[in-house]
Amino acid sequence: MKADPAGVLAGAHYLDGDFACGEGAMAAGCRFVGGYPITPSTEVVERMSRRFPMMGGIFIQMEDELASMAAVVGASWTGTKSMTVTSGPGFSLMMENIGLGAMMETPCVVVNVQRGGPSTGLPTMVGQADVMQARWGSHGDYELIALSPQSPQEAFDLTITAFNLSEIYRVPVMFMLDECVGHMTEKVVIPKAEDIEIVPRRLTKKPPGEFFPYRVNGNSVPEFARAGDGYRFHTTGLTHDERGYPVMSADCQEVCVKRLLDKINDNADDIIMLEEEDIDGADVVVIAFGITARVARMGIELAAKKGIKIGFIRMITLWPFPEKRIRELAGKIKAFVVPEINYGQMVLEVERCAGGKAATVSVPHGGGGVHDPDVIRDAIVGAAK
Amino acid sequence: MSVATKERMEVIEEEHPVAPFLRMDRIPHIWCSTCGIGTAVKCYATALEESGVDLDKAAIVSGIGCTGRVAGYMKLDAFHSTHGRAIPFATGLKLGRPELLVTVFSGDGDLSGIGGNHFIHAARRRMDLLVILVNNFIYGMTGGQNAPTTPLTAKSSTMPFGNYEPPFNLPHLAASCGATYVARWTSLHIRRLTKAFKEAIDRKGFRFIEVIAPCSTLYARLNRLGTGFDLMQFYHHSTEIQHGADPAEVDIGFQDKIICGKFVDEDKPMMLDLMHEHYKKTLGDKYVPMPPEGGWLHE
Ligand code: SF4
C-alpha cells in the first residue's frame, strides 16, 4: 500500500541522519514511539514528538529503556507501527524485550545510533561496536534483521525498509546508525506519499474460532491478529505451540524456535542488500558499512593508485550476514579487508565464511573517530602482497 | 452408585459460572491447591461479567511468576510478557489502541520488585490501567525467596532466619504516586473483592487493587502457618475494614492485622485525557488524536 500522506514531508530537505530517520519512520506509518533520552540518538524522538500530534501518533517518554522496549512490543500488538530509539547503554537494557519481540514475533523497529563503548564509553562520539550485540544481544536462539545506513538519505530510505521488513517477517529490525551518520547533515529528498511503498500488517481474515496465532501454512510467517478485534488470543515469551499456549518440552522447543531461525535464514537472499563495486577480477575486496563505508572508499582510491585491483562491498544489511556471497568470493580473491569502528566484529563473520580460502584482514578502530584512509590503504596494500 | 455420588456428578457436569471467561482448554491450571490466586481470578471474571464489559475490547497482561500465569488462563486478548514489564507492555497496548480496557494482573515480586520503577511511573502519569497485584509476601514460582513485600521477621528461602528489610506498603506507594483508585482485600473477601474490581473497571486512570493471598506451598510452609486454607482464613479473620483509611497507615506486619478497604477513589483525568486536553489547547485544529481503534494504517 502507499504511505499515509500525513506522515510524509515530501520535498528536498537539509537534514541530519537522526532527523531523517525520524522522517522515515513517520513516512513508513510509525505512529507509536516509546523511548528514553540518550545521546546521540535523542534528535530522532525530538523530531517525532514535535510532528506526531499532527498525525495521530503518540510519543511517550518511558521511565527507562526496559520500559520503552516493552511498550513498543505492546503497542505493536494493536497493529500500530511502533519503534524505539536508543544508543549503546540503552540498547543493552532493551535486549530483554527485544527477545520477547522475537519470541512473540512482533513487528517493530529498534534504532541504535551507535556511540563508543563499552559501558558509558563515548556518549557523543562514534562507534560501530554494537553490531554483534544487535545479532546476539538477547539470550537464546533467534534471528532478526539489522540494517546500516551510510547517509542521511539512507537513514530516511532504509527506515522505511526496516519497517517493511519487520512487517514481512514479524521480527524486531535493528536499525544501526552510527553517531557520524546520525549527526551529519546532507540533502535528503523525501518522495511524495504515493511514491512510497508501505507493507501493512498482515491481518488474518480467518474468523476468531479458526485462527491460531502461530499456525503457519507453508509460509513460515504466521498471520497476525491484533488486540481488540475479538480473537481473544494468547501470546507468551514461553516456548509455545501454534495456539500460543506454553508447552514445556524439547519437541515444542524444536518446532517453535527452529521456525524463528528458518523464517529469516530461508529468506536471507531476499532480505540481504549489498552494494558491490569492481568485484570482477579483484584481488582484494574491502567490506565495510555505515560511515566506515564512506571512509573506506577513500582508502580504496589511494590503494588503487598503486595498481591493486580492489573490489568493494558495502553491507546495507548486517544481519542476516551475506554468508553465501562471501563464500563465493573467497575462492576467487586473495583477501578480504574489513575496516570497522570496533576491534573486529563483523570481520569474524567474514573470516568464518572465507573458510581459509582467502585471507581476512581486520582494520580496527576503537571508536571516537573514523579511520585514517591511509590506514585502510596500507591494509589493502599489505593484503594484496 | 450412591445417591450422594450421583448428585455430586451432576454438580460437576455443570459448567463453572466463569468458564466462558477462562481458557478451559488450559485447565487444570498450574497453581497449588488452596493458593489464593484462583479466587482472585474468579472475582475478576465475575466482575467482568457483571460490569458488562465488551470482552473483545478487554486485554490482560501479566509478567512472570505464579500470578504471572493469570493472563494465560483468561479468555481475553492475553499477553504473558517479561518479568516486571507487564505495566510498560500494557502502556503500549493502551496507547496503541486507546479504546481497550487493559488490565495488568501480576504478583508482588513482579510488579513491586523488578517492576517497581514502572509501577510508580505508570501511577504518576495516570496511565489508564487496572492493576491487580496478588500479594503473597514471597516469590512463589522460584521457590519462596524474599520479596519487597515480605513482612519483617517472616521467613523466606533467602532469609531463612527471618526478614530484616522493611517491606513496601503498596497502597501507600500507589496512592502517593497518583493512583486514582486504591483498595485492598484478601482473597477470601469474594464479594468485596469482586465489587472493588467492578468499581475499578469503571474508573479511569491508574487503579490499583492489592489482593492479600496465601501461598500455601512456600510462605505457609516456611513460616509453619498451616495449610493454605488455614492462612486464607487467618488473613480473612485478621482483616480490619477501614474504608478511607490513610494509606500511609496500612502497613502489614508478620501475622498481624490487615487493614482492608477502599483507600482512594478519585475522579481525575487519566493520561490520555490530559494529553488530548493539552494538545487541543496548545495546537488547536492542527491536533490529530490517535483514533480509538489505534494508529494502524487502514488499507
Ligand atoms: S507456589 Fe505459592 S503462590 Fe505459587 S501457586 Fe503455589 S501456593 Fe500459589
Protein traits:
heterodimer; A: 385 residues; alpha/beta; Rossmann fold; eight-stranded mixed beta sheet; five-stranded mixed beta sheet; 16 strands; B: Rossmann fold; 11 helices; 8 strands; binds iron/sulfur cluster
Domains of chain B, number: 1
The main β sheet of chain B shows up as: 8 strands, mixed
Number of helices of chain B: 11
Mean pLDDT of chain A: 97
- Trace the largest sheet of chain B across and list its strands: 2-1-3-4-6-5-8-7
How large is the radius of gyration of chain B? 20 Å
Distance between the termini of chain B: 63 Å
Sheet with the most strands, sense and barrel status of chain A: 8 strands, mixed
The CATH level-2 architecture of chain B is identified as: 3-Layer(aba) Sandwich
How many angstroms separate the termini of chain A? 52 Å
CATH superfamily of the largest domain in chain A: Thiamin diphosphate (ThDP)-binding fold, Pyr/PP domains
CATH-scheme architecture of the largest domain in chain A: 3-Layer(aba) Sandwich
CATH top level class name of the largest domain in chain A? Alpha Beta
Shape category of chain B: globular
Counted up, domains of chain A total: 2
